[in-house]
């Protein structure tokens, strides 16, 4: 087995701080994208008349939420399929690999991981906050996040 195909060991595991940086950057990117597109949509619907903007309207938030989800999907699934990292993970020096052998993550598993992230956000984050537990997010669907190695 070459070093390229060795499963990641404990030394390759990123710290919780690095994981938090990556998650925060990815979330910020999706949220800002959603708000920008939602605002642009509201301006277009108001006929470029700023006085008629309705940021509390369902249309604004629908466009903003839809855009944020689409950007999140593109970042976490499509971009990670191609580059092995979302934007936040790339900035933090992390990448997503298969847990079994450290190989490239595939589209279907990345889709499952993305969906699991929303399940985690909806179910476990509120439980963690309510109980002040020490539970940390676990990797899912046979994929894990590791520190990116620099090749000589």
UniProtKB/TrEMBL annotation:
Source organism: Streptomyces coelicoflavus
Superkingdom in the source lineage: Bacteria
Task: Enumerate the subcellular locations listed in this protein's record, separating them with semicolons.
Answer: Membrane
Where in this chain does the record put each RDD domain? 19-124
**Record's keyword annotation contains Repeat:** no
The UniProt entry lists membrane topology as:
Multi-pass membrane protein
Identify the GO cellular component terms for this protein: membrane
Residues crossing the lipid bilayer are 20-46, 58-79, 110-129
Protein's name in the database: RDD family protein
Keyword check for Transmembrane helix, yes or no.
yes
**Chief location bin:** membrane
Recorded hits in InterPro entries, A to Z, give: RDD
* Keywords annotated in UniProt: Membrane, Transmembrane, Transmembrane helix
